[in-house]
Amino acid sequence: MGLIIGIDVGGSTTKIVGLNDDKVISPMFINAGDPITSLFGAFGKYLYDNGVSLGDVEHVMLTGVGSSNVDTPIYGLPTSKVGEFESDGLGAKYAVKTDPIMVVSMGTGTTLVQVNGDKIVHAGGISMGGGTLQGLSRLLLKLRNVPNLVELASHGDASKVNLQIKDISKEELPGLPTFATASLFGKAVNNPVDDADVAKGLIIMVLETIGSAAVLSTLNSGINDFVLIGNMTRLPECREVFPMMEDLYGVHFHIPEHAVYLTALGAALAYRHKTS
Question: Where does this protein have coiled-coil stretches (predicted)?
């Protein structure tokens, strides 16, 4: 069997992986000004960097919002499309051998996909994600991209902007440890803060909101495992926020290997499932 190429086409970022006998081959991503440029740039770079010829490719599987712009086969190769939610679920299921799970796909916004055995269902989402970070960082800090925000945030302290339970109570409240956030940016009302603290607070705000929304979406469902995927899993603050939320809610957040690329991987896996 040949190489299956899975491609997650976003608005300006494309992720691409190869799948060969269920082994993930050289995941990579490309930034470009539009989906088509991003798609063909990623595909060409993938082939060149890995010494892959067109004849080595059995099938190309496309997913993501940008795939709607593609109506013809990629370089004449057999090409199909698969829904993004199915791709999210298959990629996460491949990476985390736990069932059931809620997949939390953190991109421009955030989508929630429930996986229970072979059943994959879009469970909703929230309009909070990387786009929120980009917009607020430009409006509040005059920063143009998330890497600059992350760099500034590395010098910040979110406790200077966020009001915690320990700031308003000397004792833990029922179900609320003292480290829990009582009000995002609530402390900034009266206290001076610098840009680094604001940057840190913005990232914490988006991640905490996503985490809380994910947990609340599974109440009374029996789901306690959440698989985080997408670009935002690269934020250093994920390793700070989600362990704290595990302690707060008694759940488990997974950030698997290749978390950024699991939607693209899921697209490739969809082809394997349909042909097996």
Answer: none
